[in-house]
Amino acid sequence: MKDIKFVIFDVDGTLITKSSRILLDSTIDAIHQLQNKGIKVAIATGRAMYALEKSIIDRVHFDYYVCSNGTFIYDNDDKKIVYKRIVLNETINEYTNLCDKTNSEVLFQFEDAGYIYSGNGKLKKIITKYLGINDFIINHPERNHHLKNEASAIVSYIDENHLETFKDSFLDYDFVPFAQDYYDLNPKSINKATGIFKICDYLNIDYSQTMAFGDANNDYEMIEEAGIGIAMGNALDNIKEIAKYITEDTEHHGVHNALVHFGLIEGEKYV
């Protein structure tokens, strides 16, 4: 058994269900047990910090947030930004123009909210479907928020007929799907795993001493690189293939059961 000192959790489909967004009491208790043992805990999510689920952060104090798939890292104990990757203004302008030409949509994540620079409602609808709320999404036809504020991430709707055009035009980005025709754009050198690496360096923890839970494409590198990568029972097949362990799904106490299995917390598995 590895000496686990740092446990990282995806949010949607891992800590909470994607449909009902329920955070189980067994999950809360499991995380509190980890913390009582001195194990650091973090969220690693595609969400921006402004979009973190209040039902989670109001009930559990995580030590770190790895947001926007690794482009924004926050130390929740010292209340400071550890790392922030900036989307260049030139990229914002060029991407918005290509969206206009192809009837695609784009949302840029800033610290205060998500600003839709080009779109007719598809992005807002899918985000509302997944997160249940949309009050942090701002339609911004003026397209000038980036002139005084720094964007850290890109979310986009792209019709499949135009996807290769976008990929050819923005070679520095990976287009990671989270739904059909919807993508998180991650800089090729940055993902959830690189964000966790930065925190490990910060804490002087070896990556082999980490455990990571996830279910979706943006969890791939994190699950693959972690000392113990755990796929939820509801995870995509490609995530299950690289995981060192497959636990139950989110609704059936998958987090609790996996931590019991590896002896990190006390208790019995739920069946």
Name the descriptors.
6-stranded mixed sheet; 9 helices; 2 domains; 14 strands; 8-stranded mixed sheet; Rossmann fold; 271 residues; alpha/beta; Hypothetical Protein, Haloacid Dehalogenase-like Hydrolase, Chain: A, domain 2
In short:
By secondary structure, the protein is an alpha/beta fold.
Q: How is the biggest beta sheet arranged?
A: 8 strands, mixed
Give the overall average pLDDT.
Answer: 95
Number of strands: 14
Strand order in the largest sheet = 5-4-3-2-1-12-13-14
| Rg on CA atoms, Å | 18 Å
Note the quaternary state here: single chain
CATH superfamily of the largest domain: HAD superfamily/HAD-like
How many domain modules? 2
User: Separation of termini?
Assistant: 24 Å
Order of helices and strands: EHEHEEEHEEHEEHEEHEHEHEH
Estimate percent helicity: 25-40%
CATH architectural arrangement of the largest domain: 3-Layer(aba) Sandwich
CATH structural class of the largest domain: Alpha Beta
CATH topology of the largest domain: Rossmann fold
* DSSP helical segment count: 9
Kindly estimate the percentage of residues that lie in beta strands according to DSSP. Answer: 15-25%
- What overall form do the CA principal axes indicate? globular
